[in-house]
Task: inverse folding
């Protein structure tokens, strides 16, 4: 599961990294956050008529057929093993992939004796992490919203046993294959939904403040100097 993200790089930097243009109205220097949770705003790149565009999406997919937007509360992740077939995700997998650039993500260590210790994961090379995702547009008589989900897979050794899932991390050379549904078929794209190469990610323990979405700021990603007291 991936349920908490740090996103403090400005959209202008992320757009350059992914060779995308900024959507109209997207602030190139929007306010950073070190504690983004489901139902909050992420940015993602999608292919729009052959051009990559970086835009805002609310985290938690709402399929176009959904009657109740509360379904997003349980669709902020999609399992890579079933995403092509599960009704909630299969249309988006076939037609609406996106990539979600983030600076890092958090996972909580559930192993016995670790007291749900939060860990902050980043790329070892310090570049933003590019996550495989899907997006949808949903509307009702009162609301229209673009939403997204993060695809997960089995963990590699970088997770160090902290969690039994990890987000799908794409390398820049894989982004075109993931986004271009006209040129690349579902079987070829599904091959990308695998664990990252070992050594891609690194992590360290952080304080418990990240557990509350009300807390934010760069102090949340600072390494713990001593083990927390419980």
Result:
């Amino acid at each position: 599961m991936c349920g908490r993200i740090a996103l403090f790089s400005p959209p202008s930097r992320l757009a350059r990294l992914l060779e995308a243009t900024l959507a109209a109205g997207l602030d190139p220097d929007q306010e950073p956050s070190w504690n983004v949770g489901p139902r909050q705003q992420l940015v993602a790149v999608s292919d729009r008529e052959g051009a990559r565009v970086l835009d805002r999406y609310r985290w938690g997919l709402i399929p176009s057929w959904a009657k109740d937007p509360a379904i997003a509360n349980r669709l902020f992740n999609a399992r890579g093993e079933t995403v092509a077939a599960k009704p909630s995700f299969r249309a988006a997998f076939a037609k609406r992939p996106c990539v979600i650039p983030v600076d890092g993500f958090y996972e909580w260590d559930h192993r016995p004796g670790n007291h749900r210790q939060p860990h902050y994961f980043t790329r070892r090379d310090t570049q933003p992490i590019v996550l495989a995702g899907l997006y949808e547009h949903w509307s009702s008589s009162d609301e229209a919203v673009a939403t997204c989900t993060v695809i997960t897979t089995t963990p590699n050794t970088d997770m160090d046993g902290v969690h039994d899932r990890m987000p799908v991390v794409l390398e820049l050379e894989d982004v075109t294959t993931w986004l271009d549904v006209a040129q690349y078929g579902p079987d070829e794209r599904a091959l990308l939904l695998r664990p990252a190469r070992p050594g891609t990610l690194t992590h360290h323990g952080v304080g418990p403040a990240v557990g509350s979405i009300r807390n934010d700021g760069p102090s949340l990603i600072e390494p713990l100097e001593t083990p927390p007291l419980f």
